[in-house]
Amino acid sequence: MPSNSYHLSLLTNLSRCELSKVLKKLYKFGENYIICGDTNIHLLEQGKEHETLNNLLNEYNIKSHIREPTRFDRSGAATCIDNISSNRGVLSECVGDTFLSDHTLLVCKFDHDIETESQPSYVKRRNYSPNNITLFENCLKK
Q1: In this protein, which residues make up the domain named Endonuclease/exonuclease/phosphatase (predicted)?
Q2: 6 touches 14 (CB < 8 A)
Q3: What is the per-residue DSSP string for 78-135?
Q4: Separation CA 69–CA 78 (nearest Å)
């Protein structure tokens, strides 16, 4: 048992580090984002992994929206290890059976639609490569 606990903690720490890097990059853009997945952390029970994940998400104003069991094992034990988290408001959320897996289907309806069409934007930039600087200097000499 202790080796499994250590392995889980190590995996959680590695995942937390990677998730932290991703969240830092997303936060710089200032956009709305949605994170979906299987965290393998039971979010309905207090514990070190649950607290660590929540603290990390809270740093970026992200909330986990699913508050009911999302996985049922063969013995019938229920856990909330899958979630949809975002920095957006949610109008409704639900969990449904897929009859294909021991994990459930998760659905969230957000308070505003994600834009499906965006207008192209054009950005002009100067290329200050050494070759272009030399060409510019030669033009000035003429």
Answers
A1: 16-105
A2: no
A3: EE--EEEEESS-EEEEEEE--SSSSBPEEEEEESSPPPS-------------HHHHHH
A4: 6
Assess if residue 140 is contained within a domain.
no
Q: How far is CA 83 from CA 40, 53, 70, 132, in A?
A: 10, 12, 8, 51
Report the number of distinct structural domains present in the chain. Answer: 1
Does residue 136 lie in a domain region?
A: no
Q: pLDDT tens, position by position, for the chain (142 residues)? A: 333 333 344 445 557 788 888 888 888 877 788 888 888 889 999 988 888 888 888 998 899 999 999 999 889 899 999 999 998 888 899 999 888 888 999 999 887 755 555 666 666 666 677 877 888 788 788 7
CA distance 87 to 66: 14
**CA 81, chain centre distance (Å):** 14
